[in-house]
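Changelog entry: the Fumarylacetoacetate hydrolase family protein record was regenerated in this release. Current contents:
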Amino acid sequence: MRIVHFETGGAVGIAADAGSGWHGLTRRDGGFPGTLPELIAQGADLVRIGASLAQSPAIDLDAVRLLPPVPAPPKILCVGLNYDDHLEESGLNRPVYPEIFARFATSLIAHRAPIRRPPESTALDYEAELAIVIGKPGRRIPRDQALAHVAGYSLFNDATIRDFQLRTPQWTMGKNFDGSGAFGPWLVTPDAVPPGAHGLRIEGRLNGQVMQQSSTDKLIFGVAALIEMISVAMSLERGDVIITGTPGGVGAARKPPVYMRAGDVFEVEIEGIGVLSNVVRDEADAT
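Regenerated structure tokens:
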């Protein structure tokens, strides 16, 4: 089941596709079940709600404005250095514990929205990643129960301002420029992919050229391990987003480096989940 959060004519809506096309409702319609973020926050059965939308009017996703599946997550927790080939190109050793850093909601944009290249830097890099949305809260979650806490999966481009990232030992500044974190286009419920989204092809393409290609079975710390290890320190809440790390092929590691420029299009594709596509705009033009 794919479920999308959108806006049209000033009204937010929800639509689902179980294989027969997109059908949905807006807040103005009778029987509207709530937005996707609201339903996740309530712990609702997304598969059941998605199935109930099958009899609703057809929705043309090209005629509406898509929104991030969760536009304002309680927490956005990102994992660095979680693929061996990315470690190798970065010249770093394999971690025994995941590298965790935070993003904030002001950095999020949706599918088809422009990634903003700030005037302070030309070192805007791409990072194709799998995103996890938490649907069941918990603390100190055992690994064998961790997947029951997942509401669904999505795609993320953890676009990074590399020179700002490397100015300090902490990566916060380089990872949180406004309009740099593309998230979407929709949420895929866990029943539609292998457990833990394991073994799915992941690819990042710049202007159609494949720059990153790997599989989610090559994650050093998989979905269940990340949920277990992160929840030791903090309670995971409904709507939290975990971004699982990027494979090798990032622009900063290439010789010469390849950074995104205005007019470029970057696509993240994950098998069984979909394609996230965003054009790059200079910030003055994007806003």
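Residues 66 and 204 are 21 Å apart (CA to CA).
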